[in-house]
Specification:
110 residues; 4-stranded antiparallel β-sheet; 3-stranded antiparallel β-sheet; 1 helix; 7 strands; 32% strand
């Protein structure tokens, strides 16, 4: 009886481990080249439009907001401000993206 119970436990554990491995495959890393050299991308957020949006603080250039489409096309929008350092970016309500900087303002992209 204990051997049958152990066999049942091992079989159950195998099924749980196998199911978990199939349910959560390991993803692949994908890198994208940005149009501006030394653009120093910082924070990234998923947009309601299906794109990924990120902040950039390039060396010796005004900061910008970048967008990566699901197809991998990168577009930069800017300047976001004159002499500031962009920080976080987040999806807000009504398809509006908000970003923060070291200046006392809250930026938005519609």
């Amino acid at each position: 009886m204990p051997v049958a119970r152990l066999a049942l436990l091992v079989t159950g554990l195998f099924l749980v481990v196998t199911s978990a491995a199939q349910a959560a495959p390991i993803g692949a890393l994908k890198q994208y080249r940005l149009p501006t050299a030394n653009s120093a991308p910082r924070y990234i957020a998923n947009g309601a439009d299906g794109n990924r949006w990120f902040t950039e603080n390039p060396d010796f250039l005004p900061p910008a907001i970048g967008r990566i489409t699901p197809a991998g096309q990168v577009t930069e929008f800017g300047p976001a401000c004159s002499f500031c350092f962009l920080n976080d970016i987040a999806q807000g309500p009504d398809n509006v993206l908000y970003f923060t900087s070291n200046d006392p303002f809250l930026g938005r992209i519609t």
